[in-house]
Description:
The structure is a homodimer.
Chain A: H1 5-17, E1 27-30, E2 37-40, E3 45-55, H2 67-83, E4 88-98, H3 104-120, E5 124-132, E6 138-148, E7 163-167, H4 172-183, H5 194-197, H6 203-211, E8 217-220, H7 225-236, E9 239-243, H8 255-260, E10 267-271, E11 280-281, E12 284-293, E13 298-301, E14 307-309
Parallel strand pairs in A: 4-5, 9-13
Antiparallel strand pairs in A: 1-2, 3-6, 4-6, 7-10, 7-12, 8-10, 9-12, 11-12, 13-14
Helix pairs in contact in A: 1-3, 2-3, 2-6
Amino acid sequence: LAFTERQLIAAIRRRAGTSRFPRSPARILAGIGDDCAVLRLPSRHDLLITTDFTIEGIHFRREWHSPDSAGHRCLARGLSDVAAIGGQPLAAFLSLALPRNTSPLWTQGFLGGLLRLARQFRVTLAGGDVAESLRGVVADVAVLGMVPQGTAVLRSGAKPGDKLYVTGRLGASAMTLQALRHKGKKVAQARLYRSHFFPQPRVAVGSFLRRRALASAMIDLSDGLSTDLRHICEESAVGALVQAARVPCSPGADLQQALHGGEDYELLFAAPQGARIPALIAGVRVTRIGEVLAGKGRWLLDERGRRLRLEPHGWQHFASGE
Amino acid sequence: LAFTERQLIAAIRRRAGTSRFPRSPARILAGIGDDCAVLRLPSRHDLLITTDFTIEGIHFRREWHSPDSAGHRCLARGLSDVAAIGGQPLAAFLSLALPRNTSPLWTQGFLGGLLRLARQFRVTLAGGDVAESLRGVVADVAVLGMVPQGTAVLRSGAKPGDKLYVTGRLGASAMTLQALRHKGKKVAQARLYRSHFFPQPRVAVGSFLRRRALASAMIDLSDGLSTDLRHICEESAVGALVQAARVPCSPGADLQQALHGGEDYELLFAAPQGARIPALIAGVRVTRIGEVLAGKGRWLLDERGRRLRLEPHGWQHFASGE
Lengths: 322, 322
């Protein structure tokens, strides 16, 4: 027996209630149950907003992803976007369209995964919408955050001579998808693949870099290093050189997965040459991988010292190769 | 030939650019093209956020609704929610999932309808997401608005003795859907049906009531009077009596359509007995239809003076009776 829309709203409201009004720096004056959510931010802060789709068959598969992994990843996308500005996440809004036959067990698992991550980051589920989907689960999550006025770290601030850094290790998500394609769901148990199923948005790292004014430009690695580096370069009107030998690959992942695989949710940032970037920020390893160049070219310096064009291999989620 | 995701983002960005940075009271410091939109509100304002799905086959049909009507209605839902708080809309975020075969012509028409309404209300399209949909168009629009601190008109403020009012006339949308079911698309041309295809969110009326502190509770009529009145009564812990003879039916609509039909996007509000409510606000007719009662009952006083239970006839969009 599936939830009716009214039951679904009641379930969301009941479960969100346990994580509602946490020690959030934004006051939620009205949440689920009014025409709009009403929030009061502390004064002298800028507001951040990001929205991300999570579509069954595109961003996750029911036969591969447990409901709590799907729910976790759904919110992680927006938290990672807020992290990439250096912001503090405050509230989330879940628009959830379910096929008529969706079991309440799946729905509860999905909400459980989403709300566990929300609590971890003191984010309130403050609203959204529900509807029937004609095919597959469709979720759209809006995340609201804030930064002190004028301190947002944008994609557009990189300057020639800046150094390029990434957090954590790259390629784990692409490696997991390859394993899922070949071996199916049983891989989900392996600890090796945890960062695909339950990625940890780098909110503390982004916030540290913003507070110390260390980063000139920043983005999160959702599309893959080669594509997200292009975003930074295009918005900043610069080029870049990445040293292959420096790219930190996840255990088991190869360079191609680290360069082009999406959904690692690590941060890529540029910092002026003189900036002192710690090797470890909030417990997360930070690695220098290259530098920002004048011009428009994006290059990969391979192990043999050859300079190759670094083409973005468009991350097409599950659409590619299927 | 359908748009690729990259072409779609470019089309949205190009078209939104023409309506970007209008004379909006919120400064958009970063919009489409960064990880988050960054907004600065004037000081001493509360923030409003609402999100609404628009799903093909549920909220519109391609054989009934022109692309610009679908785009218009998609944004109108959120603007109407902001109106129901008494707020000023500032920015919109469009998450748009399109089936692979969607023609650029349809997409451009949809964006055109949405952006024309955005310009009318000086709302900036400041971000969103795009994805592939496995079936039908799925849009989710988040609208951001604001009110001066502490002035939001919620659903929860109605008191026994308050009078109940609605704006405009009711039932036109239900009447249009019935005509579409019987006669198909040709009705779309008739001027009579315009308020279904291009509803006008009552932003000026809501704002007037909020500025003058005239309304104790307010909601927009998206689910239908009988259901939305229940929302106000539940959130305010009160009952209500509606006088059938006073309900303003749209030309051609009957009382049942006016009471239970959804998507009229008029406002329903309560005001203390002494409040002087103009008969016309911002050019829109305002009608007293009943009063707020103690207790939990919701009643309809029919033409013969009988007191009947006013049951919510759940508005199920196009799902009902199909």
